[in-house]
UniProtKB/TrEMBL annotation:
Organism of derivation: freshwater metagenome
UniProt cross-references to CDD domains, sorted A to Z: HAMP, HisKA
Any GO CC annotation of this UniProt entry: plasma membrane
Designated name of the protein: histidine kinase
A GO molecular function held by the record: phosphorelay sensor kinase activity
Length: 464
């Protein structure tokens, strides 16, 4: 890209310089030709004034005028011819004086000058085999024309003068082009440096390095937007890869033990199948328990994976209505275990969360509370409205947990009592869904160390 940028700038500069240079050279050439012709016209009038007395007196000879004409012609590389009123040459810069006595009245420029006109122009000279530039002026005194002066020179004189003038212009143009190339090289480096940095980070990302980030406060707005988009993408990829690795690590670690236990129970059941059918049946029952535990673990892992990979768009949810509905759904199971369950809170409390997330959150919290509540105790589901959020609390009167256990309870596969059934994923799912919904979750010991208070806070939608 840098080469393309550099070539583009230099190419455009060349085109502009050539176009402008051609126009300037044309203007300078025309101006220089006009200037030279004007100077020759002035010199012709001066010479005409000097030879006027010679022409006013026919037959008079003044050797000093011939010397003057020859000096002027030699100094300016110019041919000088002076004619009388009849167009006959009387003075010439020709060293052989071949033009003296020649009739020039048939020459257009001489004929025009003898009529009192000042003429200039260019014509081809068969004698010199080159373009000839001429200037003719009349020699006038009052109303009488006594003759004419013609100065002629090769067009190469103008070309040399123009070349001297335009050489400076071309040197300036070349310097400008060189400066444009240097500036283009510097600017292209500044422009492409952020892009090269992006390319470097993309290559690092492709090789598995997700730690690199681009500065979002450097360069033009387009580069800043690109850097912000890249950083967002890199962060999401880093998070997804970490989650994937954690999922694989957790799954392999947690599934290894129940799978080994299941394999041992099946092998022992096979050995005891013929000799001790009762023992074999018991071992198969244990294997069934392990299968159920495996199913619970896999379902929990899949629930977390689905929440991580799904849409994270939040929707309005009436948490009060939902909490009351979940209480009614869990009431039958709670009564079977000798536990009463009740709801406390307003009739309506609208918050925002991921679609179906509040149901999963409440079901996991209520399930844990009922499972750890002794016979004859109660579970309370409470909803409270605050200024910016809505608080969902599930309170039980079970054996309780220490503060350290409450902090670890949201870790995947952690269980306070490893002898009890469960995958250790319920509260991990709760925390994950709450955070994706823009809220927070906490677990604290109950009053007097009895039971646990599980609290979830979700963003509140203000009523209009």
């Amino acid at each position: 890209m840098r080469r393309i940028f550099l070539a583009s700038i230099v190419g455009v500069s060349c085109v502009l310089l050539v176009a402008q240079g051609a126009a300037v050279v044309s203007y300078v050439s025309a101006s220089e030709q006009d200037r030279i012709i004007t100077e020759y016209q002035r010199d012709a009038f001066i010479l005409g004034g000097r030879v006027e007395t010679l022409l006013e007196t026919p037959g008079r000879v003044d050797p000093t005028l011939a010397v003057l004409v020859n000096k002027y012609a030699a100094a300016g590389n110019t041919q000088v011819i002076v004619v009388d009123s009849a167009g006959i040459g009387v003075l010439t810069s020709d060293p052989n004086e071949l033009s003296l006595g020649t009739d020039y009245s048939n020459r257009p420029e001489i004929a025009s000058a003898l009529l009192g006109n000042v003429t200039s122009g260019e014509r081809w000279s068969d004698t010199l085999q080159s373009n000839l530039v001429y200037v003719s002026v009349p020699i006038i005194n009052g109303s009488s024309v006594y003759g004419a002066v013609r100065l002629s020179f090769l067009h190469g004189e103008i070309d040399m003068a123009v070349a001297d003038k335009t050489a400076i212009l071309w040197w300036v143009a070349g310097g400008s082009l060189l400066l444009a190339a240097v500036m283009s090289f510097v600017v292209s480096g500044l422009v492409t440096r952020p892009l090269r940095r992006v390319e470097s980070q993309v290559n690092a990302l492709a090789l598995g390095d997700f730690s690199g980030r681009l500065p979002e406060d450097a360069g033009p707005n387009e580069i800043r937007s690109l850097a912000a988009a890249f950083n967002s993408m890199a962060s999401k990829l880093d998070s997804l890869i970490r989650q994937q690795r954690a999922f694989a690590s957790d799954a392999s670690h947690q599934l290894r033990t129940p799978l080994t236990a299941l394999l041992l129970r099946i092998e022992r059941a096979r050995e005891a199948l013929l000799l001790d059918p009762v023992s074999a049946d018991a071992r198969l029952g244990d294997a069934e328990v392990e299968v159920e535990r495996l199913t619970s673990i896999v379902e929990g892992l899949l629930a977390i994976a689905r929440s991580e990979g799904g849409s994270h768009d939040v929707v309005p949810v009436d948490l009060a209505v939902l909490a009351l509905d979940r209480v009614e759904n869990w009431r039958a199971l709670a009564e079977e275990r000798g536990v009463t369950i009740a709801y406390e809170g307003p009739e309506h409390a609208v918050g925002s969360a991921l679609s179906s997330a509040p149901e999963q959150i409440l079901d996991n919290l209520v399930d844990n509370a009922i499972a750890h509540s002794p016979n004859g105790t109660a579970v309370l589901v409470r909803v409270r409205e605050h200024k910016d959020d809505i608080e969902l609390a599930v309170i039980d009167a079970g054996t309780g947990m220490t503060e350290d256990q409450c902090k670890r309870a949201f870790d995947r596969f952690w269980r306070a009592d490893s002898t009890k059934d469960g995958s250790g994923l319920g509260l991990a799912i709760v925390k994950h869904l709450v955070e994706l919904s823009g809220g927070s979750a906490a677990l604290v010991p109950g009053r007097g160390g009895s039971g646990v208070v599980a609290t979830v806070r979700l963003p509140r939608i203000q009523s209009s």
